[in-house]
User: Fold these one by one.
Assistant:
Number 1:
Amino acid sequence: METLRFQVVGEAFKKKPLVPSTPDERPSAYYGKKVFNREKMYRYLPKNVYEKMIDVMDNGAQLDRSIADAVAAGMKQWAVENGVTHYTHWFQPLTEGTAEKHDSFIEHDGKGGMVEEFTGKLLVQQEPDASSFPSGGIRSTFEARGYSAWDPTSPVFIIDDTLCIPTVFISYSGEALDYKAPLLRALHAVNVAATDVCHYFDPSVKKVVSNLGWEQEYFLVDEGLYAARPDLLLTGRTLMGHDSAKNQQMDDHYFGSIPERVAAFMRDLEIQALELGIPCKTRHNEVAPNQFELAPIFEETNLAVDHNMLLMSLMKRVARKHSFRVLLHEKPFDGINGSGKHNNWSLSTDNGILLHAPGKTPEQNLRFAVFIVETLMGVYRHNGLLKASIMSATNAHRLGANEAPPAIISSFLGRQLTELLDHIELADKDDLLSVAGKQGMKLDIPEIPELLIDNTDRNRTSPFAFTGNRFEFRAVGSEANCASAMTALNSAVAEALVSFKKRVDQKIAEYSKDSKYSEGTGHSPKYHAIIDVLRDDIKACKPIRFDGNGYSEEWKAEAARRGLDTETSCPKIFERYLDEASIKMFESLGVMTKKELEARNEVKWETYTKKIQIEARVLGDLSMNHIIPVATRYQSQLLSNVQNMAAIFPADKAAQLSARNMKLIEEIAERTSKIECLVEELVNARKVANKIASEHDKAVAYHDTIEPKFDEIRYHIDKLELIVDDSCWTLPKYRELLFIR
Ligand code: ADP
Ligand code: MG
């Protein structure tokens, strides 16, 4: 019989019968129940106001202040009917997670009573006391106050008794202090650039939207065990812990049947997420024990980002009700898979065309090739920046480790797409663009049957893989706000499309003057121009294409030869945001100014330092007040055993019988003294680093001189865990944390 050293809080749960909380309802019935969506706008707003709101949401029309009061009144009515008493501007500061400050609807009615009030002014703009959010010095240097402003493209929703209003958060001098403002600007930029390029093929396209389907991976740990691990509690990951004898070697967890207790949690989570309009679709076990995934149906990127932020906070709440803790950290356990958040990304037009999906006609496939190649151009030009966009102190542990993408951005295309691009690049141009009698031009662009885009040759090691009708950016961290990656990616692609358009237009103008080309004869200047520029770009972006094994050592060397960014130090990777090419891109598209980029990098470096600092403290504390005392106590037991042996047996015999214990006593002495020395070195290294004034240099010092000590300390602790009596070890071990009972 296995004995449990810790109380597993969720044990009791198994005994309860499982009853779904809304037994009679189908998800389609409660989907969006807590969202002020179009259907509710239609019901609660006057017709003219409803129509204006739709125009604002669909066509980016300016929000007319005069309708704000009417919208607020409709929202309030709906909210109050649903038991809501408070409202909050909900925003995404540069910390993790979201921020909110709740105000009640209550106002004096002037007659001695109270009345629920909510005006357009309160809906549209607020001034949260923002002085303690990280801003990289923007506020202190330029303008003390910041304000939050309603983002009408993401609907308001209800959590408990509060109406939550998605907002951007900006300083009075106009700098973005959050994730959402630059994202919205990048989405606007890619819309404009992609719509322009679409017009070569279809002049009726009015708008291009960016889509995002994220896949959220996470671990669950029993609340009781979590509470007994100060490192998990304070840093989100285990800073020590020997491998469990069984972990993921058997691959028996992936897609395995979901444990009952976990299934109940998932069901509860999904009901609440669906009520909030998050279209949850997929759930399954992941590769590592206790690791799971949830994925919704993809949505417009801004909404998808909000939904992911909402889901992460919902997960934490629901988990606690089930006596679980959710671990969103990218690498909570050493030696087994970490968690990511694959970002499935694509562009589509207002008339329903997926621009990254192959079409049926040669012309459609030319357009498809243009969007694929220009996406690759953006990713190639800004591969270092894209890596910076997903990098963090926590994700740094995952990249390059088991099953995670390597710390080099490259793109996998698969055989069929590779063949298509090769054909466009290498075929004789007269064959590609041949005259076909009266019909004008014949484009020799081969068809790719949609179904044939095989999922079978999916390359799991690629950080940016083509998967049939989208790209999957797999390097995003599980804990991250997707907005960071989405801002960088959409901007990079927007820039590539702008450049493509400019060059094609130049060539069209040039060819139109040449009698060799004339519209209607088959030698259309437009198609010649598109093909010529596309061929240049297919050649230019080749270094980013890599279908091989991203884990191999050869790839690292090859990538460096190709000029791809191979930096692995997190604080140095952040420098890519301040490269001339990055600043030029963000500024030319109106996404971020140099000043904003500099301020944000200060925040990134500062956050990095703080994270490592906290880990260093926790590791030092646990070493000194858990590990060394426990090991020493056990050592004393061994010592008295040795003394007792000597008292009873003749010296020779006693020595022989105590040989093993003597070895253990020595080993414990050696390891505890090494731990002590290393912890002292750690403290001293911190003292040195803390004196550095520049946030960049401090972060680099933490990376170079402090972090490397963690593994050295851990090594000795994990060895001690193997020899110290199990019943005295104070921390739950991997084998306990990793298997839900
Ligand atoms: P996987 O096989 O990669 O684990 P999943 O089904 O878990 O796939 O998740 C794929 C995600 O990609 C879902 O959110 C899905 O809605 C999304 N997706 C599918 N097609 C597109 C597309 N064209 N653009 C963006 N996201 C997409
Ligand atoms: Mg996937």
Note: The longest strand covers residues 208-222.
Number 2:
Amino acid sequence: MNKPVPPPVDRAAASRAAVAARRARASVKRAVATHARSAVDVLETAWTQTEPTPEGGLRVRDLLLSVPTMGPTRVARVMAELDIADSKRLAGLGVRQRVRLRAWILARESRGRRGPASRLVVLAGPTAVGKGTVSTFIRENYPEVHLSVSATTRAPRPGEVHGVNYFFVSDAEFDRLVEHGDMLEWAKVHNAFRYGTPRGPVDDALAGGQSVLLEIDIQGARQVRTAEPNAILVFLLPPTWDELVRRLIGRGTEGPAEQQRRLETARVELAAQDEFDFRVVNGDVSHAAQEVVDLMELRPIEP
Ligand code: 5GP
């Protein structure tokens, strides 16, 4: 049976639309080729918009070819290593292909600016999931990772050491750090005290080729994504909701009203997990820590 042929007027409109789409894709490629836009930003647009976009319609091969210094032979090799077919468009990639492609591009982009293996990794997650325990485990067992020490306006708890757990600062000092642009990110957490990541030590460690881990709240993670698009965002999850409830109220230090408030907060925070690049389940602390550290050592596939 013959296929129905669209009337001529539709064909003309379709071909105009196709030309416009091609132009839009060409402009995305030009922006990447001239460093006006990062390739990872193109991926993010392709994968976060619900409407069709020029980015989503771009062939993976064409995106890689527009990355400066990537030629056809290298691109073919990388596509094979990433297990992505030649004809694939960004919007048509499966989840694993997306993770692999993003990791490859991040690795390549950060390699230009920093040492080959240095990564900025953000560890966030809901209240009481055990971020602090995982980051303490990493500090004690993986000395090669630079764990950022935050500044906070809250008072030290028994056993906490200035410069190790936090820099405990006054409100005025915190104001000064923010005003001078010395904070990579900062937020008021639980509507109480302010917490922030001093920028200098993070930049120094990355410039020296060390990977850096930030253990911060979700508001802070969002700010890092904007300030440092190459950062890898990891969301720490409880094994189950019931386990989170148990950890949250198990310590019995809060009254029922406060427990309820924290559970509501945890529910809202859990809903943010889709904004993150990777999820790690904190069932066993050493396994969760190992997974986070592994993410820091993603190495680029050599071109
Ligand atoms: P705590 O007072 O129990 O040590 O920490 C409370 C919360 O503050 C935790 O959720 C922790 O992740 C968050 N936090 C710690 N340091 C920072 C920081 O530098 N920036 C942001 N945004 N949150 C932080």
Note: The mean pLDDT is 88.
